[in-house]
Automatic annotation (TrEMBL):
Species this chain originates from: Butyrivibrio hungatei
UniProt protein name: GTPase, G3E family
Cited Pfam families: cobW
Signal peptide bounds: none
Span of domain CobW/HypB/UreG nucleotide-binding: 3-179
Gene3D superfamilies: P-loop containing nucleotide triphosphate hydrolases
GO cellular component terms listed in the entry, alphabetical order: cytoplasm
InterPro entries registered for this protein in UniProt: CobW/HypB/UreG_nucleotide-bd, P-loop_NTPase, Zinc-reg_GTPase_activator
Amino acid sequence: MRVLIVTGFLGAGKTTFIKELLKHTKRYTAVLENEFGDINLDSREISASADNKDMQVLEFMEGCVCCSKKDSFLYSILTVSTGIAPEYLIVEPSGVAKLSSILAGLEKVRYEKIIPVSPIVIVAAKSFFANIREYGNLMEDQIANAGHVIFSKTEGMSADELEEVKEKIREINPGAKITESYQDGKSEDWWTEVMSDEEAHVVVGGICHGVAGGNGYGAGLADDNGYGFGADNGDNIAQPAFEQMTFDLMEFNSVGALAVFCEDLLSKSYGDIARAKGVVKVCDEALRFDIADNSYVITGGEEPFQSVFIGPSIDREKLLLNAGGYKLNKKISKRNVAKAQEEGYTKIRGVR
């Protein structure tokens, strides 16, 4: 079983790429999804779009595969190999996972029937420099350990702007193959080459500084809802800790109210949120919203209604009080939010 990691920062477009890859591969393939939050919208999306309905889409929801639940992840790899036994297992880690740590972990289970192959990293080109300024060590680690860097979200970029992104990537990883776009009618031969049989190797030293502490960015819990990435990242430069907040149901009284909510998220009214997505109820309709790279998209969705918010700093009380276009319908102090929720004063249910 070849293990192909397809990674990239939050909102880069990993799931969209995997959906396209699955349309072109002729290999017997399974997919293992690892979300940062408590819900996994992406696995449902991949399953719904798969041409081969026998394809297995598995979820790993116990924690981050690069740190807090690495051993459970490796056990899952062994289970897939002996149970389903696909020719290829595509793993989509959380966008905040450290690739070098995942690859180092896979070395523990590598043998003739489990072979990690050269990873793919999806890079949102338009927001590349903004993201790398804020999350440099994490993104550099992903790029440094990639065999193939594939751009997404290049709309409106000039050739010079794309070249600047490529130059920075070459600086981080001179040996990586770079593809500017996979959405421009690539040949079947190109897609076949993407499913590389070249074996993966962990980059140690240089820009990525190896596997810090064996579990990446000081891996631990930022709080009960997120994984921390502290100063123990190999070069003593602290990275933001990511946290998450999830809702089982959010209701809006109009599409306009949902759009205003998305605009407020982008303006950081609810804190520093790098990624948000979910299926919400608007009147009697299910709609999906996606927020990444300082933009949002609202499309049709399907139940169940679930939403997740991920970022270095979430204003939890404000999000709970105002999310969904509804405020609590009687005055209460923020300290009593939980009590009010139990009493039914909010339209939001299932907060975690």
